[in-house]
Each structure stands twice: as structure tokens, then as C-alpha cells.
User: Fold this.
Amino acid sequence: MRSTDAVDRVARVLDLLADSPDGMGVSEVADALGVHKATASRLLGTLAVRGLVDRTPSRRYRIGVGMVRYAASAVPELGGVSRARPELEALSAATNETVSIGVLDGRDVLYIDQVTGSQRVVFADWAGRRSPAHCSSSGKVLLAHLPVDELERFLSRGLDARTERTITDPDEFRDRLEEIRRRGYERTVGELEEGLSTAAAPIRSRGRVVAAVSVGGPSARLPARELPRLGKLAIGTARVIGRRLEASGGDAFEVHDRAHGSAR
Assistant:
């Protein structure tokens, strides 16, 4: 087998696993690649040794934490990140909390940059990682500004519960998105993870929402009454970032959207 064929197989495996949040078994990977099961097993084993894939207790494979390092190293090259970074740092300094930028990628939010606050209890490093869009403040901000047909396709696939607070009813979810559009920001308490509070606002450039900026931390430190204040600060930060993007020619945070086959 040519080296280029081997590289292509590795790339195809990583693409398959990236689109399979529950992971895939060796037989499933073999069928998708059109190779013998033993070949797929060797390939997955090699990737696992490198930390690029993880094997679950149920003997399924999924994207490994080693991929985060590669993703994080690419983040500075995304258009707009360097221009947004000073404003993220300013917001984090003003709130002493963790601040992130996220973009919509399929059904997830992909976090492309993060500044960690000075508090002892902070978020994990989310740069290069994903979360379900429907239960994160950044995700709901981005979904609130999708075209109606795209939003309805998103809702047609269902809304999984991550906690008892996650909104899973489509009508209730539509009402929440309308509220976000009116208010200008979103606030969540324990919808993605128990004990996690966040507020997020949309970043606009050239008349469209291109990303979301969020600020948050543990709910014990950030009760619901604090989130409107953080939401308004996030709005101010998002506006400044948007102006910076437009002044530089409108470059955005382009990420390939596998769900729609286009760049956002």
C-alpha cells in the first residue's frame, strides 16, 4: 500500500470518529473503509498508541484527547482569533472568569479560543473541544441566528438531555431562541453540566453572526442573578470584536461544517 493511501485511511478514520460521538466498533470502521477487520484493528491500535483515538470500556473507538493538542495549535491560524484575543483577555480580567469564543460546527459548538480567569476554580481548557449546541449558552446564541430552514433541520434530529435542566421540547426551545434574539444574550445554569453557569452574546461581522463569546464559571460562584450582568458585558465585548473584524476586512472564524458541507 502506498504511503498516500495509508494517510488517506488515517484521515478517513478520524473523520468517521469525529462524526460518531458514541464511537465506532472495529467492524463498523472496517465496513466504512472497505477493508478487512484485521486491517482496521491494526490502524485503530496504532492511532490509540499515539493518543489520537481512545478505546472505550465497551470496545468502541472515539476521537482521543491527543487530538486536542493538534486542534489547539491550529487555533491561532483561524481568521479573527488574534483580533479577538485582546477583548477576551479584557473581559476575563474584568470578571475574573473564563471567557471563550465558539463557532457552530454541525450540531456542536467548537471552542476556538479561551482565556482562563484568575479564580482558583475554573473551567477546563475547552480550546479545540466541542459541546452540544442546544444546551450551551454559546450554542443557543448561534442557533438563534440560523436561517429558519437550517434551525428546523437541527430540531428535527431531536434534543438530547445532558442534565435535568436541558431543554428538550422543540417548542420550548424555539421560545428560548426568540427570547435570546430579543434580549441580545443567553444565560444558562446547569443545562450542559451540573453546577456550570454561563452567559454568551453573538459576534456579528458584515451583518451576520459569525461566532459567540461566552463568560462563565461554577454556579456556586455565579448564581442566576449574576448572569444578566455577565451577559451585558459579553454583548459589549462581542460588539468590539465585531468591529475589529469588519475593520480588518470582515475575516471571520471559518470552520468547515460537515453537517452542511460548507464553511461558516
